[in-house]
Structures are given as structure tokens and as C-alpha cells.
Amino acid sequence: MKAKDFVEKLLKDVSFLIIKTHSHDKYDRYLVDVFFLEGKVINEDMIQKGRFLNQEILDAGMGWLW
Length: 66
Fold this sequence. Notes:
Number of helices: 3
Oligomer: single chain
Order of helices and strands: HEEHEH
Number of domains: 1
Strand content: 25-35%
Largest sheet: 3 strands, antiparallel
Structural class: alpha+beta
Shape: globular
């Protein structure tokens, strides 16, 4: 539950996400990249200032590469 709580806290003030699907795993689950930016978002801001949720989770020790 720590990872879920971490993500909920990160995304609590986020009104817009960019989700990029690039493949699926052997269990047919989508593998995605998730980008976000707090507050009101304009597309150009997301590209320049957006944060990469996947990396935030790894940096916080809440996930791992496999």
C-alpha cells in the first residue's frame, strides 16, 4: 500500500495525465509511461515541465525494473 499511497499523494493535485502505451507483458497487461504536471496544464507546459511518474516511483524506492 505504500506505493499506492505514494502515487495518490503525487497525483492529488493533477488534473491531466499523458499516458503512452508502448506494449504489453506476458500477462497481457499494458506497459505504459505516465507523465503529469500539478495544477492547470497547457500542453506545452507538460512537454517542457512534466514529470515522469514511472521514474518518480523508482526514485522513491517504490518500484523496480524487471
